[in-house]
Design goal:
The protein has 382 residues and is of the alpha+beta class. 31% of the residues lie in helices and 27% in strands. The protein contains twelve helices and 18 strands. The strands form three sheets. Strands 10, 11, 12, 13, 14, 15, 16, 17 and 18 form a nine-stranded antiparallel sheet that branches. A hairpin with a 2-residue loop joins strand 14 and strand 15. Helix 1 crosses helix 10 (282-291) and helix 11 runs antiparallel to helix 12. The protein is globular. 44% of the residues are buried. The structure holds adenosine-5'-triphosphate and magnesium ion. Homodimer.
Length: 382
């Protein structure tokens, strides 16, 4: 079966790696260069997008920021999963909040902003600090402002007005202000839904962010009550979207109550641990779901942590001297802060995981890989 993925980055690469043993052949459409590529080798084909759509049995996406005309072309082929509405919703925080309201799933109090008066209202009604985000085009903490006091309103508004003015009638730019949530931790849930509506959900993942970017995830902690809330939110949202494929939801955990932060209609960085931690990874399950195959087992096989490799030219080979450590390289050109690869660390129990993470700090210095030792210490404390 031939699968066309919109987007030619690391997620397409890992979906392609997972699809090969299932006899699923993947080509990727690079939205930036408008070229059809091999997702692993980067080889560029002369095929047009229209031809690639026609050659494909199934079309899917590795990210949500896809031009509307491309989405429409793909949808018109009736081969596109998870569908235009799901991709549009994941790519626009205002649509995301509307979906949460409709499904009755809780999120941070917010105010949509298109004029300065809305910002002033948000500062007054939601309280400070405020987290202000562009509704479209944000990722890895980019396109965000923090408003701590009213004296910043004029300055921040001038930058916000610039963003709003750069929108077009077809692709308007809007902004959202959210109450800054004093969360205890950030968690996410990843799951798959197939064409018949069957759902398979992975164990909850706990995520560490540094400067707005995911640095480390841990899966396998026992979190029954919180996990039940996350699974409920997943099922409501996936069913409402009539979703097909893997869907990720990020949450803030505030004293055991979950608030949704955002929804990603795709495989997600906080699910990379499933490559070693589960029988069937998120990448394989996404490929299975869109190809109409049965969903795979999402139960925990091994407690696993994932460490992001940000901006480094390579993964230190010494990490492979430790048992149950695997390296995943994306084959991209290094740039400061860019997601270059990740390291998965599996363990027999939380103490073992803590030991392994501590040992890894010999090769992964705090400056380049923040938070590993802190996580190792937290795992022992429970
Ligand atoms: P990504 O797509 O990589 O997950 P993003 O750019 O879409 O990131 P968010 O996930 O919305 O952005 O925000 C990045 C981080 O900023 C969050 O993981 C969280 O740590 C912090 N943050 C965002 N919104 C809030 C909020 N309302 N209260 C407190 N912290 C927040
Ligand atoms: Mg996020």
């Amino acid at each position: 079966m031939n699968i066309l993925i919109l987007g030619a980055g690391q997620l397409a690469r890992m979906m392609s790696l997972a699809g090969a043993p299932l006899n699923l052949n993947v080509v990727a459409y690079d939205v930036g260069t408008k070229q059809i590529k091999h997702p692993l080798t980067g080889e560029i084909y002369t095929t047009s997008l229209e031809q690639a759509i026609s050659d494909a049995d199934v079309i899917t996406a590795e990210f949500e920021h896809i031009p509307d005309d491309v989405l429409t072309l793909c949808c018109n082929s009736n081969k596109f999963y998870p569908g235009k509405a799901a991709i549009k919703t994941g790519g626009d925080r205002a649509l995301e909040k509307a979906l949460l309201n409709k499904t009755g799933v809780e999120c941070a109090p917010y105010q949509l902003i298109t004029e300065k008066v809305h910002l002033e209202l948000a500062a007054k009604n939601l309280g400070k600090p405020l987290v202000i985000k562009t509704c479209q085009a944000g990722y890895d903490g980019k396109g965000q402002w923090r408003l701590k006091s009213d004296v910043q309103i004029d300055e921040i508004w001038s930058e916000m007005a610039e963003f709003i003015a750069s929108g077009t009638q077809d692709a308007p730019h809007t902004i959202i202000a959210e109450k800054m949530i004093p969360f205890d931790r950030e968690v996410s849930i990843i799951g798959a839904r197939d064409k018949h509506g069957n759902v398979a959900i992975y164990p909850l993942t706990e995520n560490e962010h540094t400067n707005g970017v995911l640095t480390l995830s841990v899966a396998g902690k026992n979190n029954q009550n919180v996990e039940a809330q996350a699974n409920d939110a997943f099922t409501k949202i996936a069913n409402e979207l009539n979703y097909v494929g893997v869907l990720a939801i990020e949450f803030f955990d505030v004293m055991g109550t979950l608030l949704v932060n955002e929804i990603a209609p795709r495989v997600h960085n906080s699910g990379h641990w499933t490559q070693q931690g589960c029988h069937c990874s998120q990448f394989e399950n996404h490929m299975r779901a869109v190809a109409g195959l049965p969903l795979g087992n999402t139960e925990l096989k091994h407690i696993t942590a994932m460490i992001n490799v940000l901006g480094q030219a390579s993964i230190p080979a010494e990490v492979l001297t430790l048992p149950d450590v695997t390296s995943h390289w994306y084959g991209k050109t290094a740039k400061p802060g860019r997601k270059m690869g990740h390291i998965n660390v599996s363990a027999h129990n939380m103490n073992d995981l803590s030991d392994k993470l501590s040992q890894l700090t010999d090769y992964l210095p705090e400056h380049d890989y923040p938070g590993i030792l802190k996580t190792a210490e937290k795992l022992i404390l429970g």
